[in-house]
Design a protein that fits this description.
11 helices; five-stranded antiparallel beta sheet; binds adenosine-5'-diphosphate; binds magnesium ion; Dna Ligase, domain 1
């Protein structure tokens, strides 16, 4: 069988640009090269697309676009969809794209829309699921509608900033509050506040990253994560846990120190708790129109309530990332996971290609 041609898409116009490069390096190194030929497509911080060489990806100081081989997309073509601007040569036609871009512009449906326009199968959720799951306000509305546990919250818009009061918010949600930009990731712009000054600073910080900010009641419980994959048939992995030595899982604790201990599988979960978490993760995935893959992050309270915190539609694939590790622990090896995700992308594309797009007769 001839090899499938995969475009690995990484970087992106996002605060999680560097994390994406590390994820892509891991995927590139793990993918079964006897089955897949990989073309590297890097998206620079300014949004330009470049054809990248392996050498640059492997470099810890990787800067996308160093070789200046810029790419452009051509819509509507059956073949010849991506062209090099340096010599006007089209890239070899790709069988599927594997975007491993995180946060806004990578995980929020905008890039997925480009892939749909190019008519190339792609890994991970499509436009609707990506957009809804990226927006913490919309995620909450869907979870609420589907009867899935979620933290109570209030959404504020930037033009309302002068009317946002700690006292009024605390009256609704309690005095320990989490403040977050609705569309972000990696805990960028997320704060915990317990008084008016902290609250005011947190609101200002969150509004730097989005015009819409979510304030949530603090959930007291264990922080757990479940890896989910599938299109129509949804599978959930074992459950992992983030145990914080101090504070919450903010940017520093995620990437800069050893405060967060990741345990796979989570210790001391009863069979019932495990089943409930996996079922909730699958239910949330389905309700949010997710396909391909997502990591569903939840809290488990002392009463055994499962509260969905958020889905991550293109979760990290670094060597310490939870998503691939959860699958590995569930018996699906890193390389097999990559292969499965690619086949899910192709299956979905075939399914959707069979839909009638024009009215006949
Ligand atoms: N309502 C909440 N109650 C308790 N902790 C929370 C709450 N919301 C967020 N956190 C903490 O903040 C972290 C980051 O928030 P999250 O909503 O996951 O943002 P991001 O999308 O940036 O990862 C979580 O991993 C958790 O540790
Ligand atoms: Mg999170």
């Amino acid at each position: 069988m001839s090899k499938l041609k995969i475009g690995l898409v990484f970087g992106g116009k996002s605060p999680e640009h560097e994390v994406s490069i590390i994820s892509a390096r891991n995927i590139y190194n793990a993918i079964d090269k006897s089955k897949f030929d990989v073309t590297l497509i890097g998206i620079a911080q300014n949004g330009q697309w470049f054809l990248e060489q392996e050498e640059n990806l492997q470099d810890v100081a990787c800067v996308i676009g160093k070789n200046k081989i810029q790419l452009a997309t051509v819509f509507g073509n059956k073949t010849n969809k991506i062209i090099r601007l340096d010599n006007q040569a089209f890239l070899t036609d790709l069988d599927a794209l594997f975007p491993i871009t995180h946060g806004p512009n990578g995980e929020d449906g905008t890039l997925q829309g480009v892939f749909l326009q190019l008519d190339i199968p792609f890994v991970g959720p499509s436009v609707l699921g990506s957009a809804v799951a990226m927006d913490k306000d919309f995620t909450k509305r869907i979870l609420r509608d589907a009867g899935i546990g979620h933290a109570k919250g209030i959404t504020f818009y930037k033009h309302e900033i002068d009317n946002i009061s700690f006292d009024a918010t605390a009256k609704e949600l309690g005095t320990t509050l989490f403040i977050k930009p609705c569309n972000m990731g990696s805990s960028v712009g997320v704060s915990r506040a317990t008084n008016e000054t902290e609250f005011k600073n947190a609101i200002e910080e969150a509004f730097k990253f989005d015009n819409k900010v979510l304030v949530e009641q603090a959930v007291i419980g264990r922080e757990l994560e479940c890896a989910v994959l599938g299109n129509e048939f949804i599978e959930a992995s074992t459950v992992g846990e983030i145990v914080m030595q101090k504070g919450f899982y903010d940017f520093e604790n995620k990437y800069k120190n050893d405060n967060a201990i990741i345990t796979i599988p989570a210790n001391n979960l009863t069979e019932n708790q495990l089943t409930k978490i996996k079922e909730t993760a699958r239910k949330a995935y389905h309700a949010l129109a997710l396909e391909g893959m997502s990591r569903v992050d939840v809290f488990l309270t002392d009463n055994d309530d499962v509260i969905v915190n958020e889905p991550n539609t293109l979760p990290g694939f670094t060597s310490i990332s939870m998503y691939p590790k959860l699958w590995e622990n569930s018996g699906l090896k890193y390389a097999d996971l990559i292969e499965k995700l690619i086949h899910l992308a192709i299956q979905r594309h075939q399914r959707d290609t069979n839909l009638q797009r024009v009215r006949i007769g």
